Amino acid sequence: MQLDLDAFYAQCEENANPSFKGKPVVVCVYSGRTEDSGAVSTANYEARKYGVKAGIPIARAKKLLEAVDAAFVPMNHPYYEQVSERIMEILRIQADVFEQTSIDEAFLDVSRRTALSFDSARDAALEIKKQLFTQEKVTASIGIGPNKIIAKIASDESKPDGLTVVRPEDVTTFLSRLPVSRIPGVGKKAEEKLAHLSVSTIPQLSSLNPTALVETFGKSLGAYLYRASKGEDEDPVREREQPTQLSRIATLKQNTRRVEETSELLTELAKSVSDKLKDQGMSCKSIAIIAILTDLSIHSRSRMLESPSSDGRLIEAVAKQLTQEFLQSNPEAMLRRLGVKASGLTKQAGQTNMSKFLTAQ
After folding, report:
1. Rounded mean pLDDT of 105-109?
2. What CA–CA distance (Å, rounded) separates 7 from 152?
3. What does the DSSP 8-state code read for residue 32?
4. Which of helix, strand or coil describes residue 263?
5. DSSP H or E run through 13
6. Domains and CATH numbers, the chain
7. Out of 48, 143, 231, 269, which could bridge 151 as a Cys pair, Cβ 3.0 to 4.6 Å?
8. In 3-state terms, what secondary structure has residue 73?
């Protein structure tokens, strides 16, 4: 299976702000030069109907949506990471082998648990979709195929909230009607080069002499394109390396800049981070706080530890000190959400006393 969360950032924003439901939602990366300077990171499907897509200027997106009630929000990556972590944990236990490829995509090898039955795999995918919507209120598109390339192409087949199953005997027919742009990794430049070879569809690509592809794209990419055009892929689903950081973030009971009103939440977040580190047998080299203000701006402060640790009391102490320092140095800041992040993760080698952390930034 290949699973792709639909317009993930926008879905997160809709869940955080129920008033956005049914509206075009545009997640933006603001440059800060002017009110509208910057680019669109992603947009929900309501916004895409008006031509809004990733990469276009924010000003252009606002012009396209000027006649409708649309929501434009700054990208809140720490929040999306938190939601993604929970979702990936749900997916991980549904797979024989799990491979997360981005914040919103993953491959699941389900060969053993389905006994190679595509019907069973389809049932499993439906259960996964149900679980994601019940627990996290998100939809995803899933492709099921005999290998990663076919699964990836299939997951793009019917967005949003799609499910496409391609059995081995149907691979050639499935690919026969698709443009070359549907092959993972084929962007505009590759399309242009293929156009010079009179290739615009996957069947046309599969009929080329492999030598022509190698001469045009080089040995590695040329061979990949030829195999992909025939639906061939021997790359297994594989566990990625251990994460280099993890974080937990939550909304305060009320907006505040009083340190004492952040204490309870920071204790909970620090414990959650500590528990997660211990579950994974990891320690961290650095602790950071993530401060999201009432204007939705995102700030962080971090501190290196003298030695790697997963001690919840240490993480809590550092987080509370960083929060106090942040508020003291930003007298106008009003906190809306707070997060605690552990980074520089290493395999656990022992505990660190809570007094052992550096006071220098």
Report:
1. 96
2. 16
3. S
4. helix
5. helix 8-16
6. 7-76 (3.40.1170.60), 176-229 (1.10.150.20), 245-347 (3.30.1490.100)
7. 143
8. strand
pLDDT of residue 354 exceeding 60: no
Among residues of the chain, what percentage have pLDDT more than 90?
Answer: 73
| 135: helix, strand or coil | helix
Cβ contacts of 1 within 8 Å, gap of 6 or more:
95, 107, 108, 110, 121, 124, 125, 128, 142, 143, 144, 151
What pTM did the predictor assign?
0.69
- Tell me: pLDDT of 97 over 70: yes
Tell me how far apart the alpha carbons of residues 35 and 262 are, in angstroms, rounded to a whole number.
31
- Active-site position among 35, 81, 85, 105: 105
Query: Is the predicted pLDDT of residue 169 greater than 70, yes or no?
Result: yes
Active site residue 316: no
Alpha-carbon span 231 to 319, nearest angstrom: 50
Please give the Cα distance from 229 to 289 (Å, whole number): 47
Residue 331: count other Cβ atoms within 10 Å of its Cβ: 7
Cα separation, 319 vs 313, whole angstroms? 10
Residue closest to 253 by CA, chosen among 150, 134, 336: 336
Q: Which residues does 48 contact at the CB level (< 8 Å), separation at least 6?
A: 7
Phi and psi for 347 in degrees, rounded to 5? -60, 135
> What confidence tens digit (pLDDT) does each residue in 41-73 have?
999 999 999 999 999 999 999 999 999 999 999
How large a percentage of the chain has pLDDT more than 70? 95
Peptide bond into 160 cis (omega under 30): yes
pLDDT in tens, 4-49: 999 999 999 999 999 999 999 999 988 777 788 899 999 999 999 9
Which residues of the chain form beta strands (DSSP E)? 2-5, 25-30, 38-43, 71-74, 97-102, 105-109, 140-144, 163-165, 245-256, 282-293, 298-309, 335-343, 346-347
